[in-house]
């Protein structure tokens, strides 16, 4: 049985037993190249819950049926393999609700991080300016502890509602979130992030907007936004700026097939010209080996792999 037919059977059962209405879940087969930052990757069965109830029911069924799955937000930190994925890609981008209560902003996992930043600004709340221009979802940002300039999720995310592998909805906060540099507890605990609470403070709207515009301007100036990428491919190595190391190794413009080390920002590997995921993986190896040889250190990837 293919992953798609197994997924269709799962949906049918959930609708029949009343756990789902038909509209709670959309099921299809799709090219991962259309769902990921590098714009590469083969086909997969894709489930798109339209409601949180749909997501919870689906996750319970996938675990019961032992079907492999991968949770995907905007895919802006994910490299999907050329051969596709033999399991179910659960894409949560339809779950976009946001709400402000006092100085707290609550956002569902599929809400855009940039949209959350704008929503905070409209409500005269400061603290999320750093997130403006990061192309991920709230769930992906919490999972990665995304950050830029003067901020990171760790500073403002005070609690997260999550679905545990046992199917319980739980609330994690404080040390339970396990935030570190591009790290969170969600990289190890098997939970699906449902929504996050951001604790912000009152600010003046024009000041907040000016900061957001400044950050976006710097992105446009420094980053190769005209090419598909997943942002910085590698993590910082303690004590080093990885982009600087890559630049100093003379790797700007280095190519494997259609993949290239950006000439504008050496930390970005880009899909320059019809790259395959294999090209990107091989270019990652080229960069890692060069840095190992020149600097004697092993840099690691920030991006995640859908395989
Ligand atoms: C041009 C560009 C600029 C970028 N700039 C930055 C930057 O300044 N700072 C930064 O930190 N990152 C940056 N990124 C990387 C990326 O946008 C962030 O890591 C973002 O937070 C990923 O969100 P996403 O929704 O795309 O997650 P995805 O790429 O879809 O997923 C990332 C990981 O999170 C997991 N995940 C996603 N949603 C959930 C969920 N609801 N529950 C459980 N797990 C989940 C996935 O399984 C995957 O392992 C940039 C990327 C690009 C393309």
Notes on the structure:
Helix 1 crosses helix 2 (52-64). The chain is α+β, with helices and mostly antiparallel strands and 307 residues long. It has helices at residues 3-16, 52-64, 113-122, 138-144, 153-156, 205-222, 242-248, 277-295; strands spanning 25-31, 43-49, 69-72, 78-80, 88-91, 98-101, 104-108, 125-126, 147-148, 151-152, 157-163, 169-173, 192-199, 201-202, 229-232, 255-256, 259-261, 268-271, 304-306. The protein is globular and about 60 Å long. It has eight helices and 19 strands. Flavin-adenine dinucleotide (FAD) is lined by residues 37, 70-78, 92, 109, 134-137, 139-141, 143-144, 146-148, 186, 192-193, 223, 225, 229-231, 304.
Key traits:
307 residues, Uridine Diphospho-n-acetylenolpyruvylglucosamine Reductase, domain 2, Uridine Diphospho-n-acetylenolpyruvylglucosamine Reductase, domain 3, Uridine Diphospho-n-acetylenolpyruvylglucosamine Reductase, domain 1, five-stranded antiparallel sheet, four-stranded mixed sheet, 8 helices, globular, binds flavin-adenine dinucleotide
Could you tell me the radius of gyration in angstroms?
20 Å
Number of separate structural domains: 3
Write down the overall geometry.
Answer: globular
Tally the beta strands: 19
Q: Largest beta sheet, briefly?
A: 5 strands, antiparallel
Q: Architecture of the largest domain, CATH level 2? A: 2-Layer Sandwich
Oligomer category: single chain
Briefly note the structural class of the backbone: alpha+beta
Ligand identities = flavin-adenine dinucleotide
Quote the beta fraction. 25-35%
Provide a quick synopsis of the model.
With 307 residues, this protein is α+β, with helices and mostly antiparallel strands. The protein has helices at 3-16, 52-64, 113-122, 138-144, 153-156, 205-222, 242-248, 277-295; strands at 25-31, 43-49, 69-72, 78-80, 88-91, 98-101, 104-108, 125-126, 147-148, 151-152, 157-163, 169-173, 192-199, 201-202, 229-232, 255-256, 259-261, 268-271, 304-306. The chain has a five-stranded antiparallel sheet with strand order 6-7-13-11-12. The protein has a four-stranded mixed sheet with strand order 1-2-5-3.
